[in-house]
Amino acid sequence: MLQTLSDLPIIYVLQSLRHRRDKQDHDPSSASVTKPNGSHIEGRSASHDWETHNANPQNWPFSRKVFTASVIYIYTFVVYAGSAMYMSAVPVLVKQMGMSEQRALLGLSAYVLGYGAGPLLWGPMSEIPSIGRSVVYFSSFMVFIVITVGAASVDSFSTFVFLRSIQGFFGSPCLANGAASMYDMFDETQYPYALGLWTAAAYCGPALGPLLTDHLVHQLSWHWSIWLIACMSAPVGVLLFVLPETYAPTVRLRRGLAATGPPDVSAWARLKFYLVKPVQITLQDPAVFFVNLYTSFIYSSYYIFFDAFPVAYLEGYGVSTGTLALFYLSVLVGCLVAAAVYFLILVPYIFCGRASTPDHEAEPDHANPTPHRNDNTHTNNNTSNNNKNQERNLLPALPATLFLPLGLLLFGWTARPAIHWLPSLTGVVLYTGGVFVIFQSLFLYLPQLYPRYAASLFAANDFCRSALAAASIHYGVPLYRNLGVGRGSSVLGGVSVLGVVGMVGMVVLGRRVRAGMGRWRDRETL
């Protein structure tokens, strides 16, 4: 029980302060370590013991994994909902305060840019063993709550935009580390389902956000688009207070289960290493570069929908803002349909195919020289064989890439008053369903390339996606107003066709690319 409590972020912070004065007594050259109960374990047996140790997140009871994952799902939902909740306030600000629409949208783009920049710090920081994930989650979210209350209280719009960017920055750890936390706990047969639920939570936030705040904003004040975020954040803060640590190197360090003491490397040196590493990987690995580029385009076009809906339905069909908020639920419908297909059909297909693939243990896998063993890694799941079939994770994305241009074209050319709104929303369902499957496939593929740097890779990906999405929020409205909904959607649909070509190339050439990168992949360590 006491060992379980030591995984909680607040307990660890207090213990770190208490033991700081004893740091000089630590002998990093020792081949053995002292466990919390005073006993010693030999360095050689420590790694072996860890693979079967009940402190290993991979070996946790399923109920504990479900609790931990559920907290992160709720956390992710609140942070993502914080972006779209503000959309209900935009027309109110334009009407009541007389500001331009582009200026009013700064409250959204600043938040998106903030939660894109944040993971560049929080992701690498969470992979420093002396810090871990739970401390980052808890400490940053406490600041998030304070900033949210401040943003909800100010009347100056300039101050509000500044606070929104800081709010997004401190709310962002779940966006990069959430998928990495799932990877910490679940083996390769469970990870797609855990990741899928996390992705669904991220989808539900923007889809439900406008609906949650529309009535409050119009009946009370535009400030309530932010006050509601504060109200939803308070219970999340309580849950994060008791969130267990999932990052294996951190758990081992806290419990004295590492084979040797921490290396004589400063936390700042570690942080710089983990900040630079994902940038190096992105620029040098074509597979990672494509994943970041393609997901950035998809994510930006996803946010353009939040600009396209008012143009298409408020101005075109003349519906009320309440009805428009209901139309956003089509995004959620697309996610749920795609999730059902993915979980019931595509995931079993992936793993059945892996199981039927012959195992060639005698051949070294240069595409994956470091299998996912549990140092933040999976065990007992035949990974050495599965790693040879990573491109199989991408197969569901091949047909899904076709749904992007089809959905965009169907939405664009049927969203006109002469045609009922249902066909256009069907296009939204097709598009968002395709996005869900593509993101699932790519996010299942990405951490397996560099397991050690999973959170940092997701952080770099989140920054690329959010930076382009923040810009798209401002060019989306001019795009649709100047070209029309049909032509504007055709432009996006035409660009999305390039993703079909890229995904085919990933599936066909991916293993060859990984083999070429294999000797560089783990050359730099810390």
TrEMBL record:
Biased composition (Low complexity): 377-390
Swiss-Prot/TrEMBL keywords: Membrane, Transmembrane, Transmembrane helix
GO molecular function: fluconazole transmembrane transporter activity
Gene3D superfamilies: MFS general substrate transporter like domains
Every Major facilitator superfamily (MFS) profile domain range: 68-526
Protein's membrane topology: Multi-pass membrane protein
The protein's name: MFS general substrate transporter
Signal peptide span: none
Transmembrane spans: 72-93, 105-123, 135-163, 191-212, 224-243, 287-305, 325-351, 394-415, 421-446, 453-477, 489-509
Region (Disordered): 21-45, 361-390
GO cellular component: plasma membrane
PANTHER family assigned to the protein according to its UniProt record, in alphabetical order: FLUCONAZOLE RESISTANCE PROTEIN 1, MAJOR FACILITATOR SUPERFAMILY
